[in-house]
Amino acid sequence: MLDNSPTTGRRWRLLAAAATAFMLAAGLTACAESDDELRTPDGSIISTVTSRIARVDIVNAGRDYAQTCLAPTAAADPAADISRVIVTDPALLDAFCALGVGPKVRAVTAADGSIPAYLGPQLGAVPTLGHSPTAAQVRTADPQLVLATPGTAAAVGALHATGVLGSTEVVTIGGGDDWRAVFTEVAKALDRSAAATERLAEFDAEAARIGRVMDAPHSQVSLVRFTPDAELIEGTGGFAPALLTQIGVARPAAQRTPEPTVVTDANFTAADGDLIYVSAQGQRGLDRGVEVLESDRWQEMGAPSWSRVLWVDDAVWYQTSGLAAAWLVLNDVKSSLNSTSS
Q: Sorted alphabetically, which PROSITE patterns does this protein's record hold (predicted)?
């Protein structure tokens, strides 16, 4: 006979709820096992930040690139300030970021994915027009100014070929590998020369202060970079190495020449120092780096045995340049020069 008593009804409801909970948990467990993701109880993936690679800490892991760009600067003549610019070389974007005028960039004549990630979401969201922009794209950008470099003459030609550019002013920024000169020229084109001078002075003052406060001259810092093709001991040339020199950081004797040196069996220990900053170019560089860092020979050197090895962002330290990137490198040094991998 069917029991319809209140007690029996409650018992069935409890059993059903338990069964449902069991099946949900089993489903989530199976899902988690199948994709190796960390998940909340409702199955949502938990976002995590990698903070260590090969037992070595990453400097400023999880840095918020939305904070990279500096506060806006004003034009010398606000009434004549330009508000719409097309940039033909992504290398010029750092200057806009450092001047706090990223919103002025309406388009970049470059391929998708070519805008450096460290410039943050504001500049990362700028439309990329590729190397053959359409008239509609240029018309939408409606530039008052085009900024180019000596190597992007073809891009300027492609803009003119649309027939929309008309008499829009085109300014070619020189400077080459001298990021300070590039920054100064971009600022001049945007009528912000005085602001640029102030921004450079602020950086120089802070770099000197950090070097003094952290007693930088008494730390011999080694720079090791893993590329897809080699392990390199960096010299004093290049973007980040030059910044370390400005801060006052000392370098090991074997690393005081401008050019990088390829690591071999014969010079392997030249990579050692009081502290070693390591970086990797791409996945293949990272694979090479992990293999070296986990090797017995590496572990037997001084800095690794003292846990004085730290990862830095290769894209910021070596693959770019500019005042905004310089601040990121300076902040990396500030937060890590006297640190260890825990």
A: FE_B12_PBP (PS50983)
